[in-house]
Amino acid sequence: MNDVTTPGGRNIRASVCMATYKGAAFVEEQIASILAELGADDELVIVDDASPDETADIIDGIKDRRIRLIRAVRNKGYVRTFEEAVSLSRGEYIFLSDQDDIWVPGRLELMLAALSECQVVASNFDMLGGGRRPWIPRLRSSDSHRRLANLAGILVGYRAYYGCGMAFRREAARCFTPIPPYVRESHDLWLAICGNIGGSVMHLDQSTIYRRLHEENQTPAGWRSLPKIVSARVMLLRLMLEAFRRSRGRA
């Protein structure tokens, strides 16, 4: 069982869950931006997915008691690695974080304020260095309560739900985990589906991270083949049915 208190006996407020793999080039800068946001009662849970480079050693060299590093013995892929990080987290509020972005100052408190009113919050992002954003439209706070439109947007691919810009309350983890075994990508869309079907998701107009695009990014940069597009849409439909089933089971 995970102890939900700090060494001083206080409840852990926020858990930042990060999955790392071959992230040596950028992970230290990202961790610095996160630690600058965290309070004494927060934690950064990092599961390294058996990186063949020095990623885990770099993290281990950062001496901060709020960091919990878990070294996987074999590579499982980023979806299962994020799932493990969430399962090991102890905070009331759970943030997902990539290994190579930069947090915008004020991100933590802004998203915590939103989570006082909803189960899942999703924010926007800007590109590090002011580069051009992907074509997908920004999230709008005015769309937060348009659940069916949001689900349709997920299915079509024009709702900008990125895990690196999302957080959720501990209660929402009951829908999010365990992640269905057929999910090999898009854990962030699964979280967004859980939030929308559960009727408690909020979009923030603000950007809370700077995204860094490079050749090692897990998010596809180009167009996919038709079979992959069809397969992804089938998976999303299955996830919507699964989220509905889980929400009914908790009712």
CATH topology: Spore Coat Polysaccharide Biosynthesis Protein SpsA, Chain A
Q: What is the gyration radius calculated from CA atoms?
A: 17 Å
Task: Return the domain count.
Answer: 1
Binned, the helix content reads 25-40%
**CATH-wise, what's the superfamily?**
Spore Coat Polysaccharide Biosynthesis Protein SpsA, Chain A
- The strand count comes to 8
Q: Helix- and strand-based class?
A: alpha/beta
Uncertain runs are none
* CATH class descriptor: Alpha Beta
**Helical stretch tally:** 8
Terminus-to-terminus distance = 26 Å
Biggest sheet strand line-up: 3-2-1-4-7-6-8-5
Please give the largest β-sheet: 8 strands, mixed
CATH architecture: Alpha-Beta Complex
Summarize model confidence as the mean pLDDT. Answer: 92
Fraction of residues in β-strands? 15-25%
The ordered H/E elements are: EHEHEHEEHEHEHHEH
Walk me through this protein's architecture.
The chain is built from eight helices and eight strands. The mean pLDDT is 92. The chain is α/β, with parallel strands linked by helices and 251 residues long.
Summarize the structure.
With about 250 residues, this protein is an alpha/beta fold. About 35% of the residues lie in helices and about 20% in strands.
